[in-house]
Specification:
single chain; binds S-adenosylmethionine; 2 domains; 35% helix; seven-stranded mixed β-sheet
């Protein structure tokens, strides 16, 4: 397997991970180097159609792999000339102010096209058609960068978005009345009736839950989703670990872990700093140590969770009422671990799509097997 030169020192980690898990890319390991692109673009296609029908000349979808970049450039250029670009056509590209949460605000536009396509493609490929009149919730949807694109592309569906951050929800509600925004708590219950939803999307939420928070929310979400409905969630799996090793992607400064006391519980930092074979400079040492420990845990237990030490560690839940990080941190799991974890719940895996969102996270599409009342 080729490894970028500066990551050659991590090759033993990659070999250990690959030996322990087939769930890297398509199982052949090579896909770690490929960037997946949405195959059909079910959301983008409809966004372009809707704009085109209003006389707006959009970049063509073909070639499909470069569409997101070309569409973002088109929007950025348009915004430069006119801050209200596309707003009259119903696509509001305005970002939340800097103090309000949004991932990837660096793009400069309120868009999340690839992820919207990936999520809907995964649902459709797992047998869940986006038929008119469905009620679908974006759980942990923040200010709504994904759900707002979904609502524009698939307006025949009633879209809902919840998040524990009241500030994010207030901005979403005010800026995007086409989506039903509401506040959820960090812990169940969710203020929804039994069987009131057809499906739920949860992007980059199970990447942070502890096993017990995951269990509580799986039970609660199976209550509010009708029998046979779906939950499509994204997770860090072996593919994501491999990308961290091979590309340093994402590239968090793992040395920050040293400043996170709770991350350091259970001897983690001792184990990291005491490894004799780690590179000598401090940053490299911590980085290697963290990845080494991650590979060991994911290979041994199929799971890794470490809570964030403070609310500032990642600002997502800073504004939530009584926010607490005991069950919110950094989470990785394998498909095998998740299958066992799901056994006591009504959820079963209907589709597993490796390395999709952000070119890193796996998408699990779960079917609610609870009995009709
Ligand atoms: C990494 S962000 C992802 C946001 C959004 N889904 C996206 O992809 O842009 C995680 C989100 O989960 C929310 N969150 C935190 N704790 C949660 C909980 N217990 N239940 C639901 N969402 C939660 C955070 O407020 C934040 O908006």
């Amino acid at each position: 397997m080729p490894v970028r030169a500066e990551f050659e020192k991590y090759r033993p980690l990659l070999n250990r991970l690959t030996a322990a898990s087939a769930d890297i890319g398509a199982g052949d390991g090579q896909r770690v180097w490929n960037i997946y692109v949405p195959a059909r673009r079910p959301v983008s296609q409809r966004i372009v159609d809707r704009l085109t029908n209003q006389g707006i000349a959009c970049p063509p979808l073909d070639p499909i792999d470069t569409f997101q970049a070309r569409f973002y450039n088109f929007c950025r250029a348009g915004l430069k000339a006119d801050p209200g670009f596309l707003a009259a056509a119903g696509l509001d590209l305005k970002l939340p102010p800097p103090n309000i949460h949004m991932i990837s605000r660096g793009s400069g536009v309120f868009l999340d096209i690839n992820n919207a396509d990936f999520l809907i493609e995964a649902c459709e490929d797992s047998g869940f058609a986006m038929t008119p009149g469905l009620d679908i919730l974006d759980f942990g949807g923040s200010t709504g960068r994904t759900v707002c694109n979904l609502a524009y592309g698939l307006p025949q569906i009633r879209w809902h978005c919840c998040d524990p951050s009241p500030v994010s929800i207030a901005w979403g509600r005010e800026s995007h009345p086409e989506v039903n925004f509401f506040i959820s708590n960090q812990n169940p219950p969710l203020e929804r009736d039994d069987d009131s939803l057809d499906g739920i999307l949860a992007k980059s939420v199970w990447t942070h839950f502890s096993p017990s928070a995951s269990r509580l929310w799986l039970a609660e979400l199976s209550r509010v989703v009708r029998p046979g409905g779906f939950l499509a969630l994204t997770a860090h799996g072996p593919h994501d670990v491999a990308r961290r090793i091979v590309y340093g992607n994402p590239s968090p400064d793992y040395s920050l872990l040293a400043k996170a006391p709770r991350m350091g519980k259970r001897g983690l930092l001792d184990r990291i700093f005491n490894r004799p074979e780690t590179p000598s400079d401090k940053r490299g040492k911590v980085e290697y140590g963290f990845l080494d420990m991650l590979v060991a845990e994911v290979s041994r237990a199929g799971h890794f969770f470490s809570p964030y030490s403070t609310l500032e560690w990642q600002g997502d839940i800073r504004d939530a009422e009584n926010a607490d990080t005991s069950h919110w941190g950094l989470t990785f799991f394998t498909q095998q671990w998740f299958k066992t974890h799901l056994e006591p719940t009504p959820w079963r895996i209907a589709g597993y799509h490796i390395g999709r969102t952000g070119h890193r996270q796996d998408i699990y599409v779960l079917r609610n097997g609870k009995l009709e009342r």
